Amino acid sequence: MEPTTSEWIIVKTSKVHNKGIFAAKDIPKKTKIIEYVGERITKRESEIRADIVIENSIKDKKKGAVYLFEINKRYDIDGNVEYNTARFINHCCDPNCEIEIEDEHIWVYALKDIKKGEELNYDYGYDIDNYEDHKCCCGAKNCKGYIVSQEYWPKLEKKIAKKKAKEKKKALRAKG
Ligand SMILES: [Zn+2]
C-alpha cells in the first residue's frame, strides 16, 4: 500500500524523535490534516500486541511506542504499518494537534493555527503506569519530562516530587 499523504504535511527528520511531520504550509485551527490509518484488529488481538510492545520496550527503550487506537467497543486500529504516515507525528506536552475518532476513523486535527515549517504533534495520552519508560524531550516550555497524558499531570508531579525527596534523603544519608 502507498503511504498516506496530505497537502498539509511533509515528513522530515525531527529533533524530537526520529522522523516527524511538519506543516507544508500555514494550517488554520480545526483543519482536518491527515487520517491515522492502520490495521483494524479485535480488542483481543490488540491486547496481545500491546503486551508485545511492553515486553520489547523493556529490552529496548526505543521500541516503546504504542500505535493502538480504540475506534469502538470491539475494534482497535494498529497504526504501526508502513503506509500510515501519521505514525511519525511525535508527542508534545504542549501539542498543536489532537486526535478525533469519527465514524471509526481516526483523524489528526489542528488544535491551533500552525505556521508553515512547524512540527506537528499531539498528546499521546499514555497513562501513568511505567511513565519512566517514556521520557519526553519535546522541548516545550511546560515539558513534564515524560510522555504522560495531561489528565495525569497532577499525579505525575506528585510522583516526581516524592522521588526527588527520596533521592535527597539518600544523598544526605550518604554524606552521613
Ligand atoms: Zn514534553
Jot down its keywords.
176 residues; alpha+beta; Beta-clip-like; three-stranded antiparallel beta sheet; binds zinc ion
Q: Outline of this structure?
A:
The protein has helices spanning 43-59, 153-175; strands at 9-13, 19-23, 32-36, 39-42, 68-70, 75-78, 90-91, 97-102, 105-110, 121-122. It is an alpha+beta fold and 176 residues long. The longest helix is centred in the last third of the chain and has 23 residues, at 153-175.
Look up the CATH topology of the domain at 9-127.
Beta-clip-like
**Structural class label:** alpha+beta
SSE topology string: EEEEHEEEEEEH
Separate helix tally: 2
- What can be said about the biggest beta sheet? 3 strands, antiparallel
Q: State the fourth-level CATH superfamily of the domain at 9-127.
A: SET domain
The percent range for helix content is 10-25%
> Low-confidence runs (pLDDT<50, min 5 residues)?
none
Strand order of the largest sheet: 3-9-8
Assess the beta-strand content as a share of residues. Answer: 15-25%
What gyration radius follows from the Cα positions, in whole Å?
18 Å
CATH top level class name of the domain at 9-127:
Mainly Beta
The set of bound ligands, ions and cofactors reads:
zinc ion
- What's the total count of β strands? 10
Termini separation (Å)? 64 Å
